[in-house]
């Protein structure tokens, strides 16, 4: 199926007659710095959007400085940017329902699987989509990182080494893991990790190994412990201003979707490539790459099982109804995408998969429901 011609997309409803906005150069905020994989994803998004609209829609990305990740809700709502990286765990009040995949982050092992499962879950969750529309956002899909590791100034070899360690975490599930082992989770914007490590504000960064390159951490890190525990799946990679989306004719909406999907696929595969390259470079730089022993792995597995068992009650305490059913549904989607990505080896194949399995089932003329 061509990414340019998607015959299965339904065009119907009054929204098909929406008055188009005047084409312009949109402002985007990948927001994590020019060396981050996100900047490359946004470059490809804008390039694809221009190609899909024959040059009518172009844009400029601001990888840093214009709007930070912690300012993105206001940046999109107020029109400072038109498309931006939205990290839902940073905004628990706004994204109570949409953060459910993030609460299950420790189940992630494959960026392709979790990206697809998270996107399908949110796009078919009316409560989740309502959270986006209430703050003037249109959700265009997800990406997930490669598995998280312990990136530390002093090597972490056993759970005992985590006692009292100040470790930067990027979500509630990762913070619960850190606290379980006696570490002190620190909420710090990702672009500030270099400064945090160099000044001793934190002693470790719990994230994908590709962050060694993204934030140039090689000279600060003494060890990376490959616990392979969790992926970050709480990002709306290309959150778009809803008022901009609403003024677009269906064919332009389709172009934005195709551009987002191509960008998401490119970003996902770049995460994978950069993780592989970062590992090689870390070894060359003399950073100790540590494989946790059986006891450490077992302790992690026990925590994940206990955390999953406690999750329904925790979500219901936040006001989320039918939590067990929603958790089970996301787990089923993870299993479904594990099957779907089998044999998918290129970002082009992955983009086609996202289009055929998710977006081909959505009526862009009336989506999202108001």
Can you put this structure into words, describing what you see?
The protein has 370 residues and is of the alpha/beta class. The protein folds into two domains: 14-144 and 234-279 and 339-361, 3-Layer(aba) Sandwich (D-Maltodextrin-Binding Protein, domain 2), CATH 3.40.190.170; 148-230 and 285-306, D-Maltodextrin-Binding Protein, domain 2. It has 13 helices and eleven strands. The strands form two sheets. The chain has a six-stranded mixed sheet with strand order 7-6-8-5-9-11, sandwiched between helices. It has a five-stranded mixed sheet with strand order 2-1-3-10-4, sandwiched between helices. Helix 1 (37-52) links the parallel strand 1 (25-29) and strand 2. Helix 6 (172-180) packs across helix 11. The radius of gyration is 20 Å and the shape is globular. Mean pLDDT is 92; it is low at 1-22.
Task: Throw out a few tags for this protein.
13 helices, 5-stranded mixed sheet, alpha/beta, 370 residues, D-Maltodextrin-Binding Protein, domain 2, 43% helix, globular
Specify the biggest β-sheet. Answer: 6 strands, mixed
Radius of gyration in whole Å, from Cα? 20 Å
Domains, number = 2
Mean pLDDT: 92
Task: Find the CATH superfamily of the largest domain.
Answer: Bacterial extracellular solute-binding protein, family 7
* Number of beta strands: 11
Spatial strand sequence of the major β-sheet: 7-6-8-5-9-11
According to CATH, the fold-level topology of the largest domain is D-Maltodextrin-Binding Protein, domain 2
Number of helices: 13
Strand content: 5-15%
- Structural class of the secondary structure composition? alpha/beta
In whole angstroms, how far apart are the ends? Answer: 30 Å
Quick one: CATH class of the largest domain?
Answer: Alpha Beta
CATH architectural grouping of the largest domain: 3-Layer(aba) Sandwich
What is the general shape? Answer: globular
Low-confidence stretches: 1-22
The percent range for helix content is 40-55%
**Helix-strand string:** EHEHEHHHEEEHEHEHEEHHEHHH
């Amino acid at each position: 199926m061509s990414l340019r011609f998607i015959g299965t997309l339904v065009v119907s409803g009054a929204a098909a007659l929406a008055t188009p906005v005047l084409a312009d150069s949109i402002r985007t905020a990948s927001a994590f710095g020019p060396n981050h994989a996100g900047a490359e994803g946004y470059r490809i998004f804008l390039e694809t959007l221009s190609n899909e609209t024959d040059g009518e829609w172009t844009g400029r990305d601001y990888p840093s400085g214009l709007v930070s990740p912690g300012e993105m809700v206001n940046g999109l709502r107020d029109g400072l940017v038109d498309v931006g990286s939205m990290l839902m765990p940073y905004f628990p009040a706004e994204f109570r329902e949409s953060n459910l995949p993030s609460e299950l982050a420790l189940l992630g092992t494959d960026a392709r699987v979790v990206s697809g499962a998270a996107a399908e879950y949110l796009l078919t969750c009316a409560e989740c989509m309502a959270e986006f529309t209430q703050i003037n956002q249109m959700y265009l899909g997800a990406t997930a990182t490669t598995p998280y590791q312990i990136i530390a100034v002093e090597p972490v070899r056993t759970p005992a080494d985590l006692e009292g360690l100040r470790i930067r975490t990027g979500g509630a599930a990762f913070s619960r893991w850190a606290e379980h082992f006696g570490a002190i989770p620190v909420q710090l914007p990702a672009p500030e990790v270099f400064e945090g490590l160099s000044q001793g504000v934190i002693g470790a960064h719990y994230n994908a190994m590709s962050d060694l390159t993204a934030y140039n951490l090689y000279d600060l890190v003494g060890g990376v412990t490959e616990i392979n525990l969790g992926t970050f799946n709480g990002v709306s990679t290309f959150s778009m201003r809803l008022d901009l989306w609403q003024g677009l004719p269906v064919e332009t909406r389709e172009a934005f979707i195709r551009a987002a999907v191509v960008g998401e696929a490119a970003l996902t595969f770049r995460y994978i490539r950069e993780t592989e390259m970062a590992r090689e470079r870390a070894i060359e730089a003399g950073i100790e790459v540590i494989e946790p022993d059986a006891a450490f792995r077992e302790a992690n597995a026990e925590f994940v099982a206990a955390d999953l068992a406690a999750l329904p009650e925790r979500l219901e305490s936040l006001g989320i109804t039918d939590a067990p059913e929603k958790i089970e549904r996301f787990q089923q989607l993870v299993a479904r995408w594990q099957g779907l990505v089998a044999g998918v080896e290129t970002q082009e194949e992955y983009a086609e998969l996202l289009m055929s399995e998710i977006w081909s089932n959505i009526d862009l003329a009336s989506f999202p429901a108001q």
